[in-house]
């Protein structure tokens, strides 16, 4: 079981902090809320500084420590703290964080004394913008040293969050520099951590609201070779904080029953397929594994006997270039390998490898079996994590890599093979370059926006806020996302505004339009193929209707003026009904006549001839000579009447003649007639 | 809903989200059409390979591999294997030169079974006798085995509606001009009818794919005949790369990849800026493969069991519908939420992918990972111009070494993601990394733990390796360098073992197969003198000269750790206590249940049995151990 934690929040409410107080209220209440659910025994106190009033024991005892107010003494978490944290008073004087720390340390010492072994933590949120008071004796640095020493003795940790938004003109950089170095001095001499925060969103993520005491996944040897081992401990570095699992609620109990639990029990019954009335007791069940259509029963004992049982251990397979391991192959949440705490030799060995890997751009490949009896092995990549803080040893991150079975090697077309219309031109590429450069979330000299380490989960934020709301007002609605959380789900309007010209240019360079080939009614179908439409199963009806339409769209059922030959061939090739051949020939006939009749100075002749060639081929294939011959005769006759001799010559030159008996049995045209047909036309004119 | 918490491979943190378990596709029906003409059997002569494998062998090998992976991961898909250019015939239409291979208890087109895999594995030995190879298209006769094969395949694929299934023919051949020997009008006629047959099949929603096999010196020319058959347009013709075939291994690799059908997970909209949104398809290229789901059986009859779940009100005992309210205990009260409210809480975005900005790649830390990534590739199906914008951004991101940060508002897991552009990488065996972007799911601050500081020793400066120690480590790294390491080069030994056992059991084989664990370190390589020396030098440099001796001393002086001592003491006292009871007598008289758990545990500890579980479990464990 996790040890109890005693936490004292030291909150600066002085004037420079006012714009941040709403977020501070939120993040602190969430912290307390989570404690009330997950660590009910933890204790929390709140000390404000920068207040008009003064209220702390030290003032009464020794004097000084003005404008430090104990809002709530340290005690077990309850709803009142949340209430208090949600309406923090706005202070009127610049706060002195060092005074607040001293008051905080004093409270903890008085409450617990040196005997209490639980975790003790101070959490300071301040702008550290105002000069701090000079101590009665010695320098500020000496005072910090003295406090730090006391904290070390008591085992008190300090976590400082320095909040500075847009700095006003008045801000004194010298003072801030001094304050920062004082806080850093804490970090060097005691267990303290300092974080700088610029935006409200980051502030929400900067304070860890849930304390999970980490457990090792593995303790033992990292085996470079059987003769060279390093003692390491392995922890999880990332693990998803899941949405809380809520209990099912039964409203069946009468409202008068004060002792009702409202719980719901879930019962499972197992029934054979053929006899739905016979219930099989759970212990009579046996596990069956699918192998194709077969289900192979294997009892737990059998399974235990035959399953893969690797030996516990973490072994090095080798080193390889960083570039050999693509980032997207990381499979799971991440582990961290640290040298066995207190083991100087192990720390040195890890440090040497970490630094060597960093320098050479190498990573290590490991094979891990975390526990004895674990039924599988893990192969993964170890990457170096060089520590930038003096008292924190170097460590490794470990990411699981996929096995051969886990990778699907789909082939995708190369972008270079795409048609030119899909390739961006120079100007477009330029616009994209600008967008990628300018829409910058990590501008130099400024805070990196949306850094994972400081970005809270908006869903969880929302849940805990609603939980508090509902505890007071059961029918409260889900509140909309506030602006601070919207910075996570939507682009920052300020960033967009700053880069308006770049964005406008980008939009101007590219043209997007809906694909005209897909009719509106089909969109849904295309979007949700039956296989993936699990989310909205309600649309089955429209889907089927659309599917029918789609089929008719995909198939050609008339000959258009634009691509008559392709249409004709497509129709001739249709096999769903014989009538398409007739329709195609008829349509083509009509089109050809249409083209000839409406021709002006022969501008459609080429097209007509192409159509006739296609028609002839089609009629030959389908052995329908009569249709073609009739049609050709009709056209030639028309030409003769209108004295369009040039067309007939064109036909003759392309060998578009009547279909002969030799070509198709049904034809009654002989070779001679076919040949002379077009030639004969001329004398017929006279 | 997964009702089984004890599934052996499944970690407790596995995501129940469908998207990650690969059940995300329609059923697929495939007919493998394998050319069995004598040409397929002629050994291939290549410089690097002296085994003289034939194209037939390669094709059969690929199919066999594919069947084995299919029965594991996509066992609902159906498959038929059909040879053409055979001397014997076996098909429903009774057409010449076509042989449909099948085994007992299975339809021609059906799910793969253990027997099919086993018998197909030995097909090469039996082929000559049972099926026989013979050219099916010879001048002088109007026989057309290719036509027949397509016809048979089409008839096999008649089942299943085109809307819900995906039907494919995969044609393996090394003859790019099947009608090359035929002359005159017959040739044109045969080509025409064959093409028409193929087209008819395609009209019925069956896609025909060609898997060409070729000799190193002669190229397989698709344009001779097959381009028309599979309906390649001009541009596609250029894109259709025949396997380079420099190495046989490469050709196998390439074939294997081509046999896969790309499956899209879903189509998403990517909002870039100012209402400009493009269309992307997402693909799950990397997902953990787990042993198939467990089906509970009645151990007496081996009949599958249905699980029925019922909800019972704990206060009244009334049977409930699935309750629509959920509660969270807070401040001592039940705070109620409706299912709709919970869904609403999770709906923090519109469900699209929304661009937020760009960062340099160095900002993407190694510990920003939670789940396998998802691949995105542009599509112009609905919105023309999507691909163009995507390529422009992709090239900029590659060149400027930046990644995009976006918010992916899926309904179950709204999350920040990093979009990392991946340049196309090809090798002699085809595409290794496709071009596109990988969507990496980023953790929130709530998901990151600060473990490094946990054991930080305050006040003292932690030791850091000296330059010399780092140098020794570098020397070691150079010795133990895996030059061509590629992720996924290892098969998962647990999975292989599991399926090997299943296959053996399914076929009633007595002997359990041995599966090689490829993930073990290369002991031979590690014992090379150079490596041993480098290791020794590194060891001396970080640990000092007499480390092993010191360790031994430390061990012997302490013989065992405190915890072990304590454990030993407990065990000893348990043995002593245990002797005070007559267990057999207690068991026979049913008085075990009168003992306390502590007393029961004396027995268990003394006999080295597990101590977990409730009292009944402990008792039954003792009874089992006593043999009662």
From TrEMBL, chain A:
SUPFAM superfamilies: C-terminal domain of Ku80 (SSF101420), SPOC domain-like (SSF100939), vWA-like (SSF53300). Gene3D superfamilies: 1.10.1600.10, 2.40.290.10, Ku, C-terminal domain, von Willebrand factor, type A domain. The keyword GTP-binding does not apply. Its main location: nucleus. Residues 277-418 form the Ku domain. It catalyses: ATP + H2O = ADP + phosphate + H(+). The keyword Protease does not apply. Its EC number is 3.6.4.12. Transmembrane segments: none annotated. One of its GO terms (cellular component) is Ku70:Ku80 complex. GO terms for molecular function: ATP binding; damaged DNA binding; DNA helicase activity; double-stranded DNA binding; hydrolase activity; telomeric DNA binding. PANTHER family: KU AUTOANTIGEN DNA HELICASE, X-RAY REPAIR CROSS-COMPLEMENTING PROTEIN 5. Single-stranded DNA-dependent ATP-dependent helicase. This is ATP-dependent DNA helicase 2 subunit KU80. It comes from Thalictrum thalictroides.
TrEMBL record, chain B:
It catalyses: ATP + H2O = ADP + phosphate + H(+). Pfam families: Ku, Ku_C, Ku_N, SAP. It is found in: Nucleus. The keyword Hydrolase applies. Its EC number is 3.6.4.12. Signal peptide: none annotated. It comes from the Eukaryota. GO terms for biological process: DNA recombination; double-strand break repair via nonhomologous end joining; telomere maintenance. GO terms for cellular component: Ku70:Ku80 complex. GO terms for molecular function: ATP binding; damaged DNA binding; DNA helicase activity; double-stranded DNA binding; hydrolase activity; telomeric DNA binding. Residues 592-626 form the SAP domain. The active site is at residue 23. InterPro entries: DNA_bd_Ku70/Ku80, Ku70, Ku70_bridge/pillars_dom_sf, KU70_core_dom, Ku_C, Ku_N, SAP_dom, SAP_dom_sf. Keywords: ATP-binding, DNA damage, DNA recombination, DNA repair, DNA-binding, Helicase, Hydrolase, Nucleotide-binding, Nucleus. Belongs to the ku70 family. This is ATP-dependent DNA helicase 2 subunit KU70. It comes from Thalictrum thalictroides.
